[in-house]
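Input structure tokens:
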């Protein structure tokens, strides 16, 4: 069992048999009263963030989240289809469970999947991923890294702001949490 002071950002907890991850926390203590921990919890099944406050004596159940490798196969009307890398069992996750991560999934690539109570519940994307630029305005001679930005559409379908020197066909690295350009890949 966790004490309220154990609720750091990134801690997995179970509330009403639902897995959550702490994404923000703030501890406060006033005078004679016990401490109070205000947190924002992200539901690991559907991605929704909820606020919650815990009092000093509260005990919080830890959530046992396992990570297993699975290969993304394809997306269809049922959801996102994966194959377990250990036993080759195929399964699917709903679009709601995968959420925003679905934009980044590439056929044939291996990803870490979160398991709660033996059931796959979500995809844990790498923070940085590589994509090819399929459409952007052409660069102009003299554009430098310190200049402005322009929109670029990537092979996964998302659009990010990239420096002016990036051109179509190049590979770039993108931060999957902030949807920001990181660097050009050689």
């Amino acid at each position: 069992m966790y004490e309220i002071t154990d609720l750091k950002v990134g801690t997995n907890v179970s509330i009403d048999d639902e897995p959550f991850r702490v994404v923000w926390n703030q501890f406060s203590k006033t005078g004679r009263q016990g401490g109070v921990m205000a947190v924002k919890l992200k539901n690991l099944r559907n991605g929704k963030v909820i606020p919650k406050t815990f009092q000093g004596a509260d005990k919080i159940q830890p959530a046992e989240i396992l990570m297993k490798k699975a290969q993304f196969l394809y997306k269809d009307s049922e959801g996102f289809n994966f194959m377990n890398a250990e036993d080759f069992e195929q399964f699917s996750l709903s679009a709601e469970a995968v959420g925003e991560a679905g934009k980044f999934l590439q056929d044939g690539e291996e990803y870490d999947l979160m398991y709660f109570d033996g059931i796959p519940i979500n995809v844990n994307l790498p923070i940085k991923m590589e994509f090819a630029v399929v459409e952007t305005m052409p660069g102009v001679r003299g554009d430098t890294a310190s200049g402005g930005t322009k929109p670029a559409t990537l092979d996964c379908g998302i659009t990010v702001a990239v420096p002016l020197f990036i051109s179509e066909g190049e590979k770039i690295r993108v931060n999957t949490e902030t949807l920001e350009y990181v660097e050009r890949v050689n």
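The chain is about 0% helix and 55% strand. The mean pLDDT is 90.
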